[in-house]
Every structure is written in structure tokens, then in C-alpha cells.
Specification:
This protein is an alpha+beta fold. The chain has three helices and three strands. It has a single domain, classed as K homology (KH) domain (GMP Synthetase, Chain A, domain 3).
Length: 119
């Protein structure tokens, strides 16, 4: 018998992404939280934990401040999720810096430098 794979973690991850993104564009009041973009959300199989990957504009100090602000908002966001999601327990949120975009921009700058030097 073939086991049916559940798409529930993906649906929950997308709901979390939308909730956090809406919070960042409208409700965030913490001055520590700068320009933050949600890049990905990974939910554990038991739906108890969620890793929210974010891209933050600014230097390392600004990024650290934004992560602190997001960590302090995690309880509020979890309460928002509890209201909006049909789950017994809303996932615990953990915010992590996603350096992928930053890395891509750095490579792009290096390639442009090489192209400019070759011409």
C-alpha cells in the first residue's frame, strides 16, 4: 500500500510566511526591526516548530538588531497564527538570517568587476 504524503507542513509553512510578511509590512512597531524580507519557512513534521528565514538589509549590527526584534515578536506572531490556523498548537517560531541573497549580490558585484576590468 502506498503511503500518502501530507502536504500539510507546506500549507502551514506558506500560512506562516504570509502571516509574518503581513506583520512586517503593516504591524511591526519595534524600531529594531529594519527592512526585513521573509525568504523561506520550514516547518517540522509534527508542526511544532518553524524556522523562518529572513533577509535583512544593512550591516551586521542592523541585522542583529532586526533578529532581536523579530525574536521578541515571535510570541505575538505565534498568537496570530493560533487565531488563523486550524491547528491544536501553533508552531514555535525561530528566526534565522538567510545570507543567500547577500551572497548572490556579492557574486554579482564580483562578476561585474571582472567584466568591467576585461573591457
Amino acid at each position: 500500500m502506498k503511503r500518502r504524503t501530507s502536504h500539510r507542513p507546506e500549507r502551514v509553512a506558506e500560512a506562516i510566511r504570509q502571516t509574518v510578511a503581513a506583520f512586517l509590512t503593516a504591524d511591526v512597531r519595534d524600531p529594531r526591526v529594519g527592512f526585513v524580507t521573509v525568504t523561506a519557512v520550514e516547518v517540522s513534521g509534527d508542526l511544532a516548530h518553524a524556522r523562518v528565514r529572513v533577509s535583512v538589509m544593512g550591516d551586521d549590527a542592523e541585522k542583529a538588531k532586526s533578529l532581536e526584534g523579530l525574536a521578541s515578536a515571535a510570541r505575538f506572531l505565534r498568537a496570530q497564527l493560533a487565531k488563523g490556523l486550524p491547528l491544536r498548537v501553533a508552531p514555535e517560531l525561530r528566526f534565522e538570517l538567510d545570507r543567500g541573497l547577500e551572497h548572490a549580490q556579492q557574486i554579482d558585484r564580483m562578476l561585474r568587476g571582472l567584466k568591467g576590468g576585461a573591457g
